[in-house]
Design a protein that fits this description.
Oligomer: single chain
CATH architecture: 2-Layer Sandwich
Structural class: alpha/beta
Largest sheet: 6 strands, mixed
CATH topology: Nucleotidyltransferase, domain 5
Number of helices: 5
Number of strands: 6
Strand order of the largest sheet: 1-4-3-2-5-6
Distance between the termini: 49 Å
Shape: globular
CATH class: Alpha Beta
Helix content: 40-55%
Order of helices and strands: EEEEHEHEHHH
CATH superfamily: Ribonuclease H-like superfamily/Ribonuclease H
Number of domains: 1
């Protein structure tokens, strides 16, 4: 199992915070990223990585690799919730079907650990992080690096996208909480 993981914290202190696992599903590379939002609203980087899937392995083996890796990450870092990219429409139906299977496995890994899963459209994710829904991957990577005050960009664009998904969810969930408390 090839997993590339970057971690900047070992055991974080218990704070009043929300920790979100973002997952960027892919049939060759599935990125994951954990971001916390502390009681001051600051975004804090926890970890990120990429599950590298060999296309030489049968699809069921690759799906199991995604499932087992995500369960391991959830068990180690204890997120409060999970966010993934919503379905988008692809020209190639076979590729879209395989991507849907990876998304299903990611949702199953989260649900089997008792976590809620939120889904966000790609345009929403890019808008939340970059301010422009059609931003390039390099722009997302740059803004994730800046927002999380990282010394270097994440090792892969998939990990950066996963961190962006987590940031989008934290911003959206925070806005919804503020709206609820204002009622």
């Amino acid at each position: 199992m090839a997993v590339n993981s970057q971690s900047l914290t070992s055991t974080p202190a218990k704070l009043s915070h929300v920790r979100t696992l973002g997952i960027d599903c892919g049939t060759e590379f599935t990125g994951y990223g954990l971001v916390e939002q502390n009681e001051k609203g600051e975004l804090l980087y926890v970890t990120c990585g990429t599950v590298k899937l060999s296309t030489r392995n049968p699809l069921p083996h690759r799906l199991n690799q995604v499932y087992e890796t995500l369960r391991q990450v959830i068990g180690e870092f204890h997120p409060d919730d999970v966010a993934i990219e919503d379905i988008f429409y692809a020209v190639n139906a076979k590729s879209a079907l395989k991507l849907g299977q990876v998304r299903g496995v990611a949702m199953l890994a989260a649900a089997s650990c008792g976590l809620q899963v939120a889904e966000y459209a790609p345009l929403s994710i890019k808008s939340a992080v970059v301010g422009y829904g059609k931003a390039e991957k390099s722009q997302v990577q740059h803004m994730v690096t800046s927002l999380l005050r990282l010394s270097a960009p994440p090792d892969s664009p998939d990990a950066a996208d996963a961190l962006a998904i987590a940031i989008c969810h934290l911003h959206t969930a925070g806005t919804l909480r503020r709206q609820e408390s204002a009622r």
